[in-house]
């Protein structure tokens, strides 16, 4: 019989408790910890059966570990009791501080609830403090932190001495339950940390694999790839380039990192690049190579972030489209130029002429003072002097304000040279070309047309246009000429055409008749060409036939 006055009982109890708690710290996993708790009840505290009931996430309690009887362990481990039934048990019977003892005289009402149960067989008690087979003793385990969050319940059965535990036995069980709760919480924390570490390692492995996949895709891409800074003082600076881009631009990666695409783009394409860099998307532009030449490329930009809240970068895919662009430019040139002579054709001539004239007739030229008044908003003054940019007095220009940015084209006075400069349209018709075609064949005629085109082109200024309308008709557009200048140009062009042209060892001659017209706002393109054509025929008829013969 346990007696508090016996020092050896207390010492033995303390030793048993100390060993049982020490064993809790040797467990390496949550499952090992739970089983160690159950084993400590039997081996350390001297009970025949020990059971650990653990609270599940849904609140019910599951038998997580059992010790003292292998048959009972196999039968009830893993079975679940409802939280309501357990709450009922922990409010019945006698409260031994935090322990709860339910004597057999009250516990018979629990025989049919849903909590799994196992009892050891034994004789009926003969003494008042003797343990009855249907007595129940529970030690609740609460989570650390001072709260009352139930972590689980230790249930014990039949002390080996056959008597209900005394004060020291109760204190030992209560202290053990407290230490067991700490051990289980720590084991859970370690398990959660281990799972988190495993998950983190898997995520890091996946990230490393993803980064390696990106690196290989970036480095070994058949087309150019670049990563550039986005935002800040270094916006657009190249941070990383692949080998394909280095080969494309003829520059090593160490050199490219000193530049941005804005440093390499063709001056005419800088606006396209800035719009693409700001908005993302795709653009076609020219980039400078190391040898100074420009290469047509297609840029596709994507904005990517380093991390969820990290800096943003611009991922640029650079594709060589030089061959396609060359083909497109060649097609565009063929559509706008004569296949035989290489000169602009009729459609291109009309397009260039249309760009210089508008449908509104031009008003008389304003004085310098009137022009300044108009430019700075002196509407009253401009109306008083009859000056309007569109030529209509007192009315706004259709589709805009009274002044637009179009510079109207004027025609010089044919009778009085007042110094006005205009856009001269010289219509040229070859004399005697038909007889050359008839006598020597189209091969010779084509060679004559090619040579005439060359001679005309060498006689005009840069910026002037020499076009072939078709057949043996050519048109020259020369801007900034007065009436006398246009007449002198016609003479020079005619004199350039007259010298013999050698074709296959044979010298042939053609003459040329020129009609000088003037492009002026208010005229259509057809009217301008028709006017020059009519003046050419007037000039042709005015010259004797002998002066027009060729062959």
Please describe the biggest sheet, giving its number of strands, its sense, and whether it closes into a barrel. Answer: 7 strands, antiparallel
Overall shape? rod-shaped
**Radius of gyration, whole Å:** 52 Å
Total helix count? 19
Distance between the termini: 149 Å
Give the overall pLDDT as a whole number: 83
Enzyme class: transferase
GO molecular function, one term: diguanylate cyclase activity
Protein name: Diguanylate cyclase CdgB
EC number: 2.7.7.65
Describe the protein in words.
With 551 residues, the chain is of the alpha+beta class. It contains 19 helices and 18 strands. Strands 3-2-1-7-6-5-4 form a seven-stranded antiparallel sheet. The chain has a five-stranded antiparallel sheet with strand order 9-8-12-11-10, sandwiched between helices. A four-stranded antiparallel sheet has the order 14-15-13-18, with helices on both faces. Helix 2 (30-43) packs antiparallel against helix 6 (167-219), helix 15 (433-440) packs antiparallel against helix 16 (442-459) and helix 16 (442-459) runs antiparallel to helix 17 (483-497). It is rod-shaped. The termini are far apart. Residues 1-5, 363-372, 374-403 and 546-551 have low confidence and may be disordered.
Summarize the helices and strands and which ones pair or pack:
Layout: H1 7-24, H2 30-43, E1 47-55, E2 61-67, H3 70-76, E3 80-81, H4 83-89, E4 94-96, E5 99-102, H5 104-107, E6 136-142, E7 150-159, H6 167-219, E8 224-229, E9 238-241, H7 243-249, H8 253-256, H9 261-264, H10 270-279, E10 281-288, E11 294-305, E12 312-320, H11 322-336, H12 346-354, H13 368-375, H14 379-384, E13 422-431, H15 433-440, H16 442-459, E14 465-470, E15 473-481, H17 483-497, E16 501-503, E17 506-508, E18 511-519, H18 525-542, H19 545-548
Antiparallel strand pairs: 1-2, 1-7, 2-3, 4-5, 5-6, 6-7, 8-9, 8-12, 10-11, 11-12, 13-15, 13-18, 14-15, 16-17
Helix pairs in contact: 1-2, 1-6, 2-6, 15-16, 16-17
């Amino acid at each position: 019989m346990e007696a508090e006055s016996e020092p050896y009982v207390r010492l033995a109890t303390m030793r048993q408790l100390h060993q049982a708690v020490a064993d809790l710290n040797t467990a390496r996993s949550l499952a090992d910890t739970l089983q160690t708790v159950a084993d400590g009840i039997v081996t350390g505290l001297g009970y025949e059966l020990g059971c650990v009931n653990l609270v599940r996430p849904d609140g019910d309690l599951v038998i997580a570990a059992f010790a003292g009887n292998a048959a009972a362990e196999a039968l009830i481990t893993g079975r679940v009791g409802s939280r309501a039934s357990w709450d009922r048990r922990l409010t019945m019977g006698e409260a031994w501080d935090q322990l709860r003892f339910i004597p057999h005289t009250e516990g018979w009402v629990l025989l049919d609830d849903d909590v799994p149960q196992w009892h050891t067989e034994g004789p009926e008690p003969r003494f008042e403090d003797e343990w009855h087979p249907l007595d129940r003793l529970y030690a609740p385990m609460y989570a650390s932190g001072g709260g009352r969050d139930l972590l689980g319940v230790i249930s014990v059965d039949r002390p080996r001495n056959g008597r209900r535990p005394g004060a020291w036995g109760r204190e030992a069980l209560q202290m053990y339950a407290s230490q067991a709760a700490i051990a289980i919480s720590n084991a859970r924390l370690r398990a959660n940390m281990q799972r988190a570490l495993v998950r983190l390692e898997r995520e890091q492995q996946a990230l490393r694999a993803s980064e390696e996949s990106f690196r290989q895709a970036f480095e070994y891409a058949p087309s150019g790839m670049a990563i550039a800074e986005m935002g800040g003082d270094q916006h657009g600076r190249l941070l990383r380039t692949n080998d394909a881009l280095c080969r494309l631009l003829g520059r090593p990666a160490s050199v490219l990192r000193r530049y941005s695409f804005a440093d390499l783009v063709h001056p005419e394409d800088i606006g396209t690049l800035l719009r693409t860099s700001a908005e993302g998307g795709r653009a076609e532009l020219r980039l400078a190579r190391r040898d100074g030449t420009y290469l047509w490329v297609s840029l596709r930009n994507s904005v990517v972030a380093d991390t969820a809240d990290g800096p943003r970068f611009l991922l640029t895919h650079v594709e060589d489209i030089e061959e396609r662009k060359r083909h497109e430019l060649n097609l565009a040139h063929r559509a706008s130029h004569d296949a035989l002579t290489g000169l602009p054709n009729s459609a291109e001539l009309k397009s260039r002429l249309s760009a210089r004239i508008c449908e509104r007739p031009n008003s008389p030229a304003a004085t310098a003072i009137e022009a300044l008044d108009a430019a700075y908003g002196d509407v009253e003054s401009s109306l008083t002097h009859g000056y309007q940019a569109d030529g209509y007095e007192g009315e706004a220009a259709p589709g805009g304000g009274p002044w637009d940015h179009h510079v109207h084209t004027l025609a010089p006075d044919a009778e009085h040279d007042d110094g006005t400069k205009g856009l001269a349209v010289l219509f040229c018709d070859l004399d005697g070309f038909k007889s050359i075609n008839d006598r020597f064949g189209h091969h010779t005629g084509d060679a004559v047309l090619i040579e005439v085109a060359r001679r005309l082109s060498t006689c005009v200024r840069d910026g002037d246009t020499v076009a072939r309308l078709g057949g043996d008709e050519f048109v020259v557009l020369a801007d900034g000429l007065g009436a006398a200048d246009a007449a002198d140009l016609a003479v020079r062009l005619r004199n350039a055409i007259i010298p013999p042209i050698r074709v296959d060892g044979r010298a042939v001659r053609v003459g040329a008749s020129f009609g000088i017209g003037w492009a002026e706002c208010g005229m259509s393109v057809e009217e301008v060409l028709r006017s020059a054509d009519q003046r050419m025929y007037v000039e042709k008829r005015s010259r004797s036939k002998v002066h027009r013969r060729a062959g």
